[in-house]
């Protein structure tokens, strides 16, 4: 062993670097950098992709000083519950300081992926003008910019390969941003503007598609009608991923035939989405020819496709691995999925009516899927009701879940048959699925479930709890038991100071903890902040509910804490107090 | 009429049911944890259904706005008044994409141009937010504005003399200073 060790020490750095090239996951690279000083050094100079799960855990300056050759950066900003309007818009998560530092630091940035960050037009302009090799921009659930910012990207990024916007409200400035791609731009591989509300110049789009011969992924928005889509498809038969836009006309037979012909040409499409405004289902059969090749189908924005048409479409898709639908599909429709899509790995069923109307799925649909799709490993399921028996059956059928998220439309609903809590059902899931990394629970739940989670969910990294539990013990079981826990988010549950302060060191092993409408008091948060200097404990006081008085006994409405190497952030707005 | 032990149960209060009359208010806070029929001030305007909680079901806000059937949609009609006009109009904020769109539509509604433009306009758009304060249109991101706007008023600039209004901010775009 000793001679082997000394052999390793004499490896020239180039060899080490070459070996490290094969390590693609950032966790592996992080692990490698901890081995010894020389490995740390080699690794940091050769790292090109950096993932930062919480933009406030580290500063841009420290990022650049440790990884000067970074080319690809992924940043996440607001906590997850910001998706559900629990975090004010101006809480933070600005990308501007990162872009400024990288510009100043001479970073050769090529790729930027942001989630829940605030991005301004100014940031986009800076990005477009200071990084000559910039190639890829992916923005998910971000906000703060307009189509002017997009115009800057289109105009100035000469080698742009990817522009991918997901679930973003972009203010439309009617400036024809798409027409800003110069004629010399031929490098696009992926263009996704499905979420944009404004108009685009169709002629510019068609010309852009025609000259980008490497285009693989195109998702257009509602403003692209069927005849334009058909012309685009004729120019791009090489597409692998298509977002159809509105698909919302009632075409005459000539247009329909042209569309069908265009679709038949696209033999490479394996991923399909869109159908944003399907008014009549007459055009749907035009996509049947490509259905049998599809591995991914997203109909979750297709409110206009009714259950029977949906089912007809899905019957053609026997290679599906990933399916996103609305609950209008119904339990029967899920039965069809179960018998057709034997390769299914991921299923997401979204509510079509947030008030819980007639169209909804129940435990029956879930059981059918679990029985028919043995490869299922990831599920997000919004349902009207659930039973322990169903969950136990699902756990038995599918022990391979990595992500299991269930949301009952009534958050505290008990077992629909026995009226008992759903502890046993979810307990069966965590017992059976030894590889479970992410879990969201709902329904009537007691501390018993959290005991099960603490005991069995050994690989669990992220847990979401709402309206659940009876006492501090519940939270304690989780914090004490789940050794790999990284993110815990809790709302409207009776967990308080005792649980919060039981094991303060635990929070340094996690990325973050969110607690809202729980029982923690200001005093306990202050204690935690004081004892743990490497945590930022933030109180969000957006409704002016709290006064900065001495009353440490007052309940805290929203608390978000996270580990950090750089102390309290300097950009917190007035309503965010860092204790 | 004697206030006897029946008093509390039948007395009309704003407290949640079953809470009793705990003066310190801490009882009330404890109840919040499991009663899902509470609603925040944001949702009161839209909560036709009693059983609504902020952020439940956990559907992200983009999806909430965009995936539900058209008939159902969360429309945000607000009244618009213009100084000097004999009657008010109504405008649906949920179908506007941003400030420039809104201002253009206001101009069309009242047949008056240049609302919100630099100095050249004789009018300035203001809105009443959910706290009851009158605010200048354009300071906050569009989403924040459309959620908190209760009504709009197109005010004569002369009435706003002395207040440092910078209407040109509307078209500048919202740049966040970090």
Automatic annotation (TrEMBL), chain A:
Primary location group: nucleus
Q: CDD domains under this entry? A: F-box_AtTIR1-like (cd22159)
Question: Where in or outside the cell?
Answer: Nucleus
Q: Does the keyword Nucleus apply?
A: yes
Q: Which InterPro entries match?
A: COI1_F-box, F-box_dom, Leu-rich_rpt_Cys-con_subtyp, LRR_dom_sf, Transp_inhibit
Domain of life of the organism encoding this protein? Eukaryota
GO cellular component entries: nucleus
What biological process terms from GO does the record include? Answer: auxin-activated signaling pathway; pollen maturation
Q: Which Pfam families match?
A: F-box_5 (PF18511), Transp_inhibit (PF18791)
Q: Which GO terms describe its molecular function?
A: auxin binding
Segments forming domain F-box: 11-52
The record's keywords, sorted A to Z, are: Auxin signaling pathway, Developmental protein, Nucleus, Ubl conjugation pathway
Q: Please indicate if the UniProt record lists Nucleus as a keyword.
A: yes
Where does this protein act, in terms of pathway? Protein modification; protein ubiquitination
Task: Name it.
Answer: Protein AUXIN SIGNALING F-BOX 3
From TrEMBL, chain B:
| Protein name (database record) | Auxin-responsive protein
Q: Does the keyword S-adenosyl-L-methionine apply?
A: no
Please give the chief subcellular localization of this protein. Answer: nucleus
Keywords in alphabetical order, please: Auxin signaling pathway, Nucleus, Repressor, Transcription, Transcription regulation
For the region Disordered, what residue ranges are annotated? 1-34
Q: Does the keyword Nucleotide-binding apply?
A: no
Q: Which organism is it from?
A: Abeliophyllum distichum
Q: Which domain of life is it from?
A: Eukaryota
* SUPFAM superfamilies named among the record's database cross-references: CAD & PB1 domains (SSF54277)
């Amino acid at each position: 062993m000793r001679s082997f060790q000394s052999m390793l020490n004499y490896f020239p750095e180039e060899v080490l670097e070459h070996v490290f090239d094969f390590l693609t996951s950032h966790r592996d690279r992080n692990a490698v950098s901890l081995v010894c000083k020389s490995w740390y050094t080699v690794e940091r100079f050769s790292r090109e992709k950096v993932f930062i799960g919480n933009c406030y855990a580290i500063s841009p300056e420290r990022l650049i000083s440790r990884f000067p050759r970074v080319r690809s950066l992924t940043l996440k900003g607001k906590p997850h519950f910001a998706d559900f309007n629990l975090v004010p818009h101006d809480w933070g998560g600005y990308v501007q300081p990162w872009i400024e530092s990288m510009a100043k630091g001479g970073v050769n940035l090529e790729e930027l992926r942001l989630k829940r960050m605030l991005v301004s037009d100014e940031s986009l302009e800076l990005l477009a003008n200071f990084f000559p090799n910039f190639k890829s921009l992916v923005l998910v659930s971000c906000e703060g910019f307009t189509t002017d910012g997009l115009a800057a990207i289109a105009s100035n990024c000469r080698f742009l390969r990817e522009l991918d916007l997901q679930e973003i409200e972009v203010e439309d400035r009617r400036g024809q941003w798409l027409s800003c791609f110069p004629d010399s731009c031929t490098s696009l591989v992926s263009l996704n503007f499905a979420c944009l509300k404004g108009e685009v110049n169709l002629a510019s789009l068609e010309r852009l598609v025609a000259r980008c011969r490497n285009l693989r992924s195109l998702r257009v928005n509602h403003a692209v009608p069927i005849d334009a889509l058909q012309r685009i498809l004729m120019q791009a038969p090489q597409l692998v991923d298509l977002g159809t836009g509105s698909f919302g006309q009632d075409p005459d037979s000539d247009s329909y035939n042209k569309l069908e012909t265009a679709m038949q040409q696209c033999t490479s499409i394996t991923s399909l989405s869109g159908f944003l405004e399907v008014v009549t289902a007459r055009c749907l059969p035009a996509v049947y020819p490509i259905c049998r090749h599809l591995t991914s189908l997203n109909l979750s924005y297709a409110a206009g496709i009714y259950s029977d048409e949906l089912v007809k479409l899905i019957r053609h898709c026997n290679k599906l691995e990933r399916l996103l639908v609305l609950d209008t599909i119904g339990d029967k429709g899920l039965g069809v999925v179960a018998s057709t899509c034997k390769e299914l790995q991921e299923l997401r069923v979204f509510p079509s009516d947030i008030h819980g109307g007639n169209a909804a799925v129940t435990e029956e649909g879930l059981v059918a899927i679990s029985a028919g799709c043995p490869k299922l490993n990831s599920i997000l399921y919004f349902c009207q009701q659930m039973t322990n028996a169903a969950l136990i059956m699902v756990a038995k059928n599918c022990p391979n879940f990595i992500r299991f998220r269930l949301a009952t439309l009534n958050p505290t609903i008990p077992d629909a048959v026995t009226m008992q809590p759903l502890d046993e059902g979810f307990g069966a899931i965590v017992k059976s699925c030894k590889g479970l990394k992410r879990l969201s629970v709902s329904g009537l739940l007691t501390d018993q479930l959290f005991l099960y989670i603490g005991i069995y969910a050994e690989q669990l990294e992220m847990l979401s709890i709402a309206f659940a539990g009876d006492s501090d013990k519940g939270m304690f079981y989780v914090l004490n038991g789940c050794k790999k826990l990284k993110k815990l988010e809790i709302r409207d549950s009776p967990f308080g100071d005792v649980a919060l302060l039981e094991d303060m060191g635990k929070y340094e092993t996690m990325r973050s903890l969110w607690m809202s409408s729980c029982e923690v008091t200001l005093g306990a948060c202050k204690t935690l902040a004081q004892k743990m200097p490497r945590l930022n404990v933030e109180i969000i006081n957006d409704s002016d509910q709290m006064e900065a008085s001495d009353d440490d006994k007052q309940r805290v409405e929203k608390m978000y804490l996270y580990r950090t190497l750089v102390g309290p952030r300097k950009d917190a707005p007035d309503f965010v107090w860092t204790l | 009429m004697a206030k006897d032990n029946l008093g509390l149960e039948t007395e009309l209060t704003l407290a949640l049911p079953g809470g009793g009359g705990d003066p310190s208010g801490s009882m009330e806070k404890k109840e919040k944890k499991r009663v899902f029929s509470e609603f925040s001030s944001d949702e009161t305007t839209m909560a036709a259904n009693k059983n609504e909680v902020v952020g439940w079901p956990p559907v992200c806000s983009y999806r909430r706005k965009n995936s539900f059937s058209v008939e159902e949609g969360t429309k945000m009609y607000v009244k618009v008044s213009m100084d000097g006009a004999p009657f008010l109009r109504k405008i649906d904020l949920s179908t506007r994409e941003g400030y420039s769109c809104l201002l253009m539509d206001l101009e069309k509604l009242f047949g008056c141009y240049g609302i919100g433009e630099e100095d050249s306009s004789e009018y300035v758009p203001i809105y009443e937010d959910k706290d009851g304060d009158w605010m200048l249109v354009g300071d906050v991101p569009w989403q924040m504005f459309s959620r908190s706007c209760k009504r709009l008023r197109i005010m004569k600039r002369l009435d706003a003399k002395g207040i440092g209004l910078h209407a040109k901010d509307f078209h500048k775009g919202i740049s966040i200073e970090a």
